[in-house]
Design a protein that fits this description.
Radius of gyration: 16 Å
Helix content: under 10%
Number of domains: 1
Structural class: mainly beta
Number of strands: 10
Strand content: over 45%
Largest sheet: 6 strands, mixed
Order of helices and strands: EEEEEEEEEE
Number of helices: 0
Mean pLDDT: 95
CATH topology: Immunoglobulin-like
Length: 131
């Protein structure tokens, strides 16, 4: 049975507490820059899969407004033992180069096919003027 994607989150960092709970630090969907290209030092895409059964492959990636690949995780294999199981897949990206301001997308692939796509905004901000 094919799983469902319970959620997908972009954040600066992910930590797991001793009790097993995950903490998402700096959740965002917009990156700003004064000049481009801008380099985002570290970001994570966290996906939680549930309501499926079996072994699956997933990949997370960011594409630009022309559907060109900016960055992609390796394919990650995960397993759901039954319908009530869930699994977190955490992809860490370092030094992500965002070439220009505009509308980007986060894509989540399951078994090599697009499963979910959502917007990721890159904004150009004005440099503060000094007197």
């Amino acid at each position: 049975m094919k799983p469902e994607l319970q959620f997908s989150v972009i954040c600066d960092d992910v930590r797991q507490e001793k009790n097993g709970k995950f903490m998402f630090i700096g959740v965002f969907n917009t990156v700003s820059g004064v000049s481009f290209p801008v380099v985002h030092p570290v970001l994570h895409i966290v996906n939680q899969w549930c309501s499926g059964e079996g072994t699956f492959r997933q990949q997370s990636r960011i594409i630009d407004m022309e559907n060109k690949l900016v960055v992609a995780s390796p394919e990650i294999t995960f397993q759901l033992k039954d319908f009530y199981s869930s699994h977190f897949v955490i992809s860490r990206f370092q030094g992500v180069v965002l070439p220009c301001a505009g509308q980007y997308s986060v894509e989540v692939l399951l078994e090599g096919e697009l499963f979910r796509r959502f917007p990721f905004h890159i904004l150009q901000i004005q440099k503060p003027q000094t007197e």
